[in-house]
Amino acid sequence: xxxxxxxxxxxxxxxxxxxxxxxxxxxxxxxxxxxxxxxxxxxxxxxxxxxxxxxxxxxxxxxxxxxxxxxxxxxxxxxxxxxxxxxxxxxxxxxxxxxxxxxxxxxxxxxxxxxxxxxxxxxxxxxxxxxxxxxxxxxxxxxxxxxxxxxxxxxxxxxxxxxxxxxxxxxxxxxxxxxxxxxxxxxxxxxxxxxxxxxxxxxxxxxxxxxxxxxxxxxxxxxxxxxxxxxxxxxxxxxxxxxxxxxxxxxxxxxxxxxxxxxxxxxxxxxxxxxxxxxxxxxxxxxxxxxxxxxxxxxxxxxxxxxxxxxxxxxxxxxxxxxxxxxxxxxxxxxxxxxxxxxxxxxxxxxxxxxxxxxxxxxxxxxxxxxxxxxxxxxxxxxxxxxxxxxxxxxxxxxxxxxxxxxxxxxxxxxxxxxxxxxxxxxxxxxxxxxxxxxxxxxxxxxxxxxxxxxxxxxxxxxxxxxxxxxxxxxxxxxxxxxxxxxxxxxxxxxxxxxxxxxxxxxxxxxxxxxxxxxxxxxxxxxxxxxxxxxxxxxxxxxxxxxxxxxxxxxxxxxxxxxxxxxxxxxxxxxxxxxxx
Amino acid sequence: xxxxxxxxxxxxxxxxxxxxxxxxxxxxxxxxxxxxxxxxxxxxxxxxxxxxxxxxxxxxxxxxxxxxxxxxxxxxxxxxxxxxxxxxxxxxxxxxxxxxxxx
Amino acid sequence: xxxxxxxxxxxxxxxxxxxxxxxxxxxxxxxxxxxxxxxxxxxxxxxxxxxxxxxxxxxxxxxxxxxxxxxxxxxxxxxxxxxxxxxxxxxxxxxxxxxxxxxxxxxxxxxxxxxxxxxxxxxxxxxxxxxxxxxxxxxxxxxxxxxxxxxxxxxxxxxxxxxxxxxxxxxxxxxxxxxxxxxxxxxxxxxxxxxxx
Lengths: 581, 103, 197
What we know:
Chain A is mostly helical. Chain A has helices spanning 18-23, 28-58, 83-119, 127-146, 172-200, 213-244, 270-304, 311-324, 340-368, 377-394, 397-400, 402-408, 412-442, 448-475, 497-511, 513-525; strands at 256-257, 260-261. By secondary structure, chain B is mainly α.
């Protein structure tokens, strides 16, 4: 770095007090950990909401054991869950998992911690902005949590908050919108920071085609957040005004609510909300999956001890996915009554976008061929990710075509499809990433035995939960029913599956205990790493001290080669780090 | 551009842009009083706004001498903005037979 | 390794300093924000059985006056940057001060306009046209306020940087300017759309 200025100087970490160092930190690693810890908490919280819902679906109308009496008379009188509370749980499970759990984990936590290290940067390009970004996220999370204690409870119109239902919902919906403002602005600032960092702060010699695939996936993700979130923000502004200023952006004339005509000017459009929401919503699902693919690619390359197969085609694919993800959104809206021309357009783009996803998955599978695979815990999660993501992706194809989608759209099939991508997909990638990078962050390994006890039950239970849902969905069971479909005769054959699914969900919850214990125990008592590069990896994050200090690198690394030079013929060892001449 | 001479030239350019913007503002208001049909009025008003916007972007925001990376970024933005607006717009004119749009 | 590179000087291969890229990224998201509202306007208008002509409700001369005010403030903003390039700090202060003043003029005129509407019982809930008018202009006014805060900081306490790191300060004014011109640019589209069509 030739352009030194005194202004670029950070006070060294030891000079900072506790507050500046750990609370209002500007160091990307501390912020990454803040994101990680907060988001893991929300992930667990959102998971617990689902566990409650599963009771209602398996045993509709029966009092919830133990927990029921603590929920309060307003939510579950006598321990029996009210439909309104069930709706709150459903809406907030989606919101919390997507916006407060997974995005902050894959983007905020992994992205913040790893991206600057992998490109050889001293920090993010705008450290203070990074801090603001985290605290906006935190406040947004608090607003969402507080909304549970409002009269009328939290938002209950689904994570999609469709108008006009959301317009006439209770106060919780207003909090949902305000919470979303914080989360959206947090993501926007984060996205600006990521793009600027990757473009401006790459170490000397780190050309774009030498970036690890993880960095590429984060770069594309940042672009998705940057350009897709503002339309949702605009829509949220309009819905907020609809609710507090009684405008009718999303309210057509002549609406009748509870037998009374709604006293508004009318003239609005309900479809406008759906368009603006899904303009974000579809890129958002790629925000959930692309960084996960990045994590998986890093771990695969490292544990098969050979280069990724088709790095370039993976990079082109991920860029193409990012581009296409902006023009497929209306495949979420076939049921709203679309003309054939428009729906043909969106069906075509949807089929096209599946091609680059398949290319990436194929490259990852082919990479395994002929590798000497190390079956450590991160690699187990990674190997589970590949087929699970495959199932999730392939079951999505019928949903992209309007004819089957009209039948399947409001059924459990969609739940199963989507969760196959995010639960055993993205969340497994998150686990893999935690097991993989924990030694760099703490200087200690996670316990291997506990890792296995975490992995195997999680892997089986995930499948036991979601495969039956495909069956329920194909039988036509609606995904929005409070009693799971009890009153429908056609559903009777598949209803007993609800009990099995719920059992498996609760066992899945138990299977997370070894992980939590492992995290806490290994932080202080885990096996210490033998070197700065315990996995013998090639990318730059392993060229830092363990844990990396403020400013990350001891001296500015110079990059001489691509990211995955494993088992190069003629080389002295089976890996050649990027910064080695 | 660090030399004072270049800056003087720049400032002269800014004055010209300022005058052009003022004239265009007057023109667009004047035309609005002529009561064209809606389609023509929209075309004229947005074309003038487009010219004014380009003047501001090119000269005040120095876009004209900006680097390639910025143009690539703005290219994406224009594409995504147009796809947002035009695809939603198109979906309003392509309804299944026998249905109408409620507002 | 403690130093953040490319804060002042451009990175050779991209030709940009960090904040230059940062502000354009921010403005990209702003384009999508206003673009989405603009799309909403287009669609609500297309779907509406009848839509009032802007000039039948809004005051065109006042809107045109405000357009001129904002354009003028954009010019003074770019002059303040040019003054720094010429090393004339006093001229910089004068021009940036004028920019802030004009921004206040814009807001005051806007407030008078809003007040006149409320007096005639025209509220956002009155019609979809008024709803989108108030939403777009209020969001724009928030951006004007944001600009006043930023420019006010650089006019006041932030100007101290001119002594310590002049080059970096010039960059900051350029960035603040790019934002301010964008606020102007948005108004250039809002004015004909809302008032004249």
